[in-house]
Every structure is written in structure tokens, then in C-alpha cells.
Amino acid sequence: MKKKLFTVVSTLALCSSLALPTYAAGNHPGTPEQQNYNSSGFTDYEQLGKKLEKIEQSSQGRVEVEVVGQSNNGRDIHQARVGNGDRVILIESEIHGNEKTGTEAVLNILKHLGSSSSPDVKAMLEEVTLVTLPKMNPDASELDRRGNAMSWDEVLRDFPQLEAASGPTWNHYYSENGATLQGDDYSSQPGFDVNRDFNPDLDYTPNPEDVPGSSSEPGWYITPEAQTVRDVYKGLEEEFGKVDVFVDLHHQGLYYVEGTSEPVTLSLSGQFVPDPSSEAGAKYEEYEDNYDYDFSRQLNLAAYDALQSKGSSPFDNITLYSQGLDLPGTALGSFALNGSGTVLFEVTGQTQSMGQKKKGMLVNAVETGLQAIIESVSDGSVNEIDPERYEDIPETTYQPGI
What we know:
By secondary structure, the protein is an alpha/beta fold. The chain has one domain: Zn peptidases (Aminopeptidase). It has ten helices and 15 strands. It has helices at residues 45-58, 101-115, 119-125, 138-143, 152-158, 224-240, 293-308, 331-337, 351-354, 359-379, and strands at residues 2-3, 63-70, 76-82, 87-93, 128-133, 172-173, 180-181, 184-185, 191-192, 245-252, 256-257, 266-269, 318-320, 341-348, 396-397. The strands form four sheets. A nine-stranded mixed beta sheet has the order 1-2-3-5-4-10-14-12-13, sandwiched between helices. Strands 6-9 form a two-stranded antiparallel ribbon. The radius of gyration is 20 Å and the shape is globular. The protein starts with a strand and ends in a 5-residue tail after the last strand. The relative contact order is 0.17. Its cofactor is Zn(2+). The active site is at residue 346.
């Protein structure tokens, strides 16, 4: 396993005299419900390193594993890569540490692609390069919560120019007198929603005028986790010219098929910012030549069709996640504006609320969708899909009290 050297950020400094942040409910994708269940049985940080090492060894060099960064508390962020093709697929899991199902699916795919002697797999790996970040927010994963472990004081040490800002960024989780937020206690270990720390300007430098910001504005790359993903993305751009596909694996609360009381198994989406060519997206005009919404829709349909082909059970309620979003601070929004086809996976339930009862089914659902995306990109069949069918997929709705 290769290991690159990175500067480890100093240990967590605590903020004093902090008030609760104004983090509004419904800031999608991935707003969690408050849950307090055990998530044992999923791959933890220590197990991940061992599993990746085993996959790398058994693949006889086909799968390459390396450390591409460190979390704020100094944990390694691993990258696993397989394939030698010109079409690049980047998959990220556990940007929220209590959303773990995607990690299991990614490990299963890496194991299969690394060990299979199938001619079809060999041909596929000659067409695509699959790059995965199976647990990109390991501090949050170990804490089994959404936010990372990082105080505003630590941000100011890294970016002293932000001393002039009016206060922390809007996505900062912290609490006073032990109060809880998003189901977790952030009083002793504040943190950030890393999936609001991205910016379509991949060379952006934090500016105090952009703080605190909002959910409909770009992020800042102030967390080492978001910086690592950005650096991986830029490195792939330098190597290949483009990252063709970016997939982000999440969990959601309990949602329903719109207009029904049928619970959703998995939601998909390819829309996170308005089209730069539209009136609503005019502020992203500089990215207009990069943005390819049709390709994002085709990728989502590849996953949707594969799940639908499994029959009515267990994947009978596959939906579109909330549409009409404007979230340039998410990895999906930022990378879509940089020209990647984007896919969001949102399986039902936060990890803590699931226990083990749905783990196998949900891992299988994510794995099925991911495999379909990889295969369709490798053989070019994704380009034959009518993107307008995306609009016919039923949408997701949240129905409290059902």
C-alpha cells in the first residue's frame, strides 16, 4: 500500500462561548433524522485499511491502494483504484460518517473487479479507470455522526484571513452546555458538514467576504477532507483531462414515493445546481460549456433501469431525490459544474436507525446501481439512453407522521 506524506493538522481545539448554529432542516442532499442506534457490523476505520490491503494483495496489482490525505484528526483517507481506461469514474462514500452502506458496496465492487477472471471484466477495465474514496470522512465515521471533528479555531489557524469574517461558516455544528444537534453532541467536538465545503472554483482561496455563506452558495475548502477530494479530482483532471463521472453515496431519512405511503428503498439524482444556460443558473454562466445535464440523467437512468430489472422486490420503490436544487457547495454541485456527469445515491434510513435488518438489501441496491453505471460507461451504452426518461421517474417526498 503506497503512502503519500501530508501535514497532519494539530489536535482538536475547543471553541468557547459558542451558540447553536443556524443549520436549517431540509438542506439537502442528506439531511439526517435524529437517530440513536448502534451501527456495529459496518466496516470501521481500522477494518477498512486491512480490507483494502487484502484486496490489493489478492488482486496481484490490479487494484492500487494509497493514502491521499488525512482527516483533521490525522486519520488516513484511502484511495483504491482499478482499471486502465480513458473514461474516469470517481466514487466517494461516507462524506457523512453515519452513512456507511456505500462503503460496503464499494469494497464488494473492488474485490470483484480485482479478482475476477471474466473476459467481460477484463474488457471493462481496459475502458474505464475506477477511482474510489471508500471512507473519505473517517473522523465522522469513527464518531458515527454526520459532521467531521474540527473547531472554528482550527480553521482560523489554517486560514488566518478568516479572522475578519463575522463568525463560523453556516455549516458548522457546535453546541453549548451539552445541547445536541442532528442527534449528536457537538459540544466537546465541534465539526462541519464537509459536504457543504466544496466550491466549483477548484483553485478557490477562502475569503472572509464569503463567510458565513448559505446552502445556495459555494463552500470554501476549509476542511482537510474536502481539500483531499478536491486534490484527487484535480489530479485526475491533470492525468486524464476530465473526470467523466462522479458518484456520491449517501443515506436519507424515511421518505416515500410521492403521492403514496410507499417507503422508498433508494433515491437517485443528477441535478444539484440549475443549468448554467437557464435564467436560474445565470450565476454559473462561466461553467456553461462544461455542464452536461443530459449525461447525468443518462447515468442515473443506467442505475435506475438496472434496479428496476431486478423485479418488484426488494428494489420496488426507486425514486428521484428532491429536484430543483441549488447546492454549489456540495461535491456533486461543484463537480457537475466542472463537467462531470453526477449521480447521487440516497438509501433509506440513517445507519444508526437500520441496525442490520436492511444492510444486505441496501448494500445490494447500491452495488447493483454502481455496477450498471460502470458497465454502461465502459461499453458506451449509457450514451444510447434517452435522457428525457429521467423526468418520468417518480419523485421522493417526506411525509412526517406516516
